[in-house]
């Protein structure tokens, strides 16, 4: 075959020129763009790896942004809590200063003024916001968490930062946790509020004139029952159990009880305290509660079980100083009473011992009733009791303008949570009373005046076959309907607080169903009653009724078990408003309520609880200090939680930054052009191209002679 010049040209130039030009184009493109490839077709593997790394960078960017946002909130919360703790220390210092007993009234007022200023500062801190979003409102960041009354209006929802696949970190502290949180390791502690004097020392001969030679002293554990209850002569009766103490309360497990303790003159106060402990379940081998006396002779009870808010206590004592008629009027079961076992049998007694030994209004009263707990709560009906401290839970809700409020929180038996509208009453009630294991047969009494000022007495009958309520003693019984399909009168154990509150609202607004057993009439009555009044559970599980038609309501309300005050029947299954012991410490925190009580104690110049002056149910400065110590501990633990959150977010942010740098480096190695390497390759390709052109040029100059 003859070799032609065109064959040399095509072989040396045509093929190599295209190849080298493509390579030159590629390397110039890499140098110009800084990237190894422009399109997926250029290198599928490189393109796929680059896309994966780009997605990873986007995710890391989201993590960084989320973490940085969360860290700002957590860090600001940390700063606010630092100021909280500083202010708490100042508050405690002022309370301790107020408790030293050397201050004048003016000095205590000045301390109280500074404390009120700190209270305002705490509220301002609680309402701290960032960019218009409140720190402590939970997820309701546009809602001001604490109002002027110290009530929380946020929610308990946590907010989380995204830290990566299936990984989040909470970054906020809700006001529900901070101001209303719960400390599971705290033991509930309560106290009576009536100062108990040693009557033997005040009246050495137990006559009116002997008071001139007497002196004031409070009761101690080593004193006798006669020292506590007094006498009318110098004879010490060592044989007759003439002193009777009636105890009502609730154990830490939610079980309620009635207990009568009978004692002699010579028995010790310590014996009475031991008897109270036994009523709660104390034995020689197991202590359920600690029962003691403070320096004012007031009984204090500390729960040995941690984390329960159910413990409660009430006691009244009585002695009949004249049993010569064969009757013992201090014993509520004595034959002198037509109805045995009713605590109201003591209503005719005298509560002022001075009137016993020197009556100013003859004839003399020989029945002396000793009060241990007093409150401003009126009795549910004037016919029940005229003695303030006699009743436990047959008391009316407290009126404040248009609102009637109870004072007993509804707490679930199996947990320490507050009840809600959807909570079944059987989840709170003591089902060991009455018919064991059920509310069937239980009756609640509703007593008071409706919004028009008309008196009413209603009953709620819990029945497994269908619960009802009546306002005429049971002649007309209205079904309390459930919300199931088909609608029917609710089973006693399935009745909720909402259904109870619906009945309360209808009774208090005098809005009753048109018929007794028609669902449409029942629902219509509820709807109409809600126009006039509103009954709800507060944030701390207390029933509240609000009159929507008046700024100062004419209504009054009491709700209590029909067995209340009857020592011959099982104890009440539950209470709603009670003349009960004062709370000193409780697992549940109510920061601004507790702080207000502490400041009120200073404003009242009250070192210990004292029902005879100031705010009757204030726990006093000494107990306020103990409460504040608990609040400080709670705030400190919350602060530690926030610190841990911030540390976690900081670590996550640092990790994200490192991952971002690492991923960007890896991406660069995959997709970015090495300019030096590309430049060297360009030079090599240029040399190759020049060599090819030189070779082609020489081949093009050959003649026929060169082939011979």
UniProtKB/TrEMBL annotation:
<dbReference type="InterPro" id="IPR001492">
    <property type="entry name" value="Flagellin"/>
</dbReference>
<keyword id="KW-0969">Cilium</keyword>
<keyword id="KW-0282">Flagellum</keyword>
<dbReference type="GO" id="GO:0009288">
    <property type="term" value="C:bacterial-type flagellum"/>
</dbReference>
<keyword id="KW-0966">Cell projection</keyword>
<dbReference type="GO" id="GO:0005198">
    <property type="term" value="F:structural molecule activity"/>
</dbReference>
<dbReference type="InterPro" id="IPR001029">
    <property type="entry name" value="Flagellin_N"/>
</dbReference>
<protein>
    <submittedName>
        <fullName>Flagellin domain protein</fullName>
    </submittedName>
</protein>
<dbReference type="Pfam" id="PF00669">
    <property type="entry name" value="Flagellin_N"/>
</dbReference>
<feature type="domain" description="Flagellin N-terminal">
    <location>
        <begin position="15"/>
        <end position="139"/>
    </location>
</feature>
